[in-house]
Every structure is written in C-alpha cells, then in structure tokens.
Amino acid sequence: MSRIGKMPIVLGNQAKIEVSDGNITVTGPKGTLEQAMVSQVSVKEENGSVTVERIDDSKKSRAMHGLYRMLISNMVEGVTKGFTRKLEIAGVGYRAELKNDLLALSLGYSHMIYFKAPDSITIEVPDQTTILISGIDKALVGQVASKIRSFRKPEPYRGKGIKYAGEIIRRKEGKAAGK
Description:
This protein is an alpha+beta fold and 179 residues long. 20% of the residues lie in helices and 39% in strands.
C-alpha cells in the first residue's frame, strides 16, 4: 500500500469536490481546478474527507495511487490557501519591475526581457530584487517560477542571477594566481 496514497484528504468546510466522467473538480473560495482521472484509481468522498483507492495491484495502479492523492491534495490546498514562490535577483544592475501586466527584467543583457504571466498567475515585485509568483495551481506556479529563473540562472563563481528564495548556490573558487 502506498503510504501517501492511503492517507485521507481533509476538505474542511471551504472546499467542495465533484467526481464525474473521469474528471475531478475542486471548488473553493479562490477558484476552481479540474483534473482528468485515470482508470487505475477511484476517488470516494465521505463525510468531509476524500480517499483515493486503486483498482488492482498492477505497477501502473500503484504508481497512480500516490500521484493522484497528491494532485487532489494540492488542488484542495490551492483553492483554499493558494501557492506562492519567491524569486531573488542577485547581481549589480540586475532588477525587475512591473510594466502594464508585463514583468520587465534587466539581467545584464543588451536588452530588457519582458514576460507575460498566464491569466491565473499573479506576479508582484515588492522591491527591485524580489519577485513573488502566486496562484491556485501548484504546477503552474512552479512552471512560471522556473521559466523566469531560466532567463538568468545563478552562476557558481559570483552567484549572480535569479534564484529561488532559500536556494543555496554551490560556489566555486576562481582561477588561482600562477607562480
């Protein structure tokens, strides 16, 4: 039995779940999320909690059991609380700002980089070196954060670039002076 898959998901009083035609729909105060189901697992709602059970013990069913339990759990958390990723910019002259729903990044290139976020994602820039990405879909928030980070990944010699908050950059030593 999957240790993650057998744990129940507590809905609370804010989230509602609907299972129909191979789709799961979770609705909450922040919005609605949908997920397509596979035939290897079944979802049951009983008195305020949701359980995910697998149909048989095949390898595919065992793999999908824990996966769909976490997907549904993330959907419930997203529509009730939401998700946020924080990015930090390090480097002389590197900065970010919002211009008419576009994230404008100055990252040491000869041009500015403009990024338009998907509709369900909110980007905030509290100061020039911090970017906050928030939304209800955990995968989409992570994907947008990864895309922004890819514009200038942190380099190991000086640590310049865009990094996740709390990310530790392994630093390398520069060239040693020749004798």
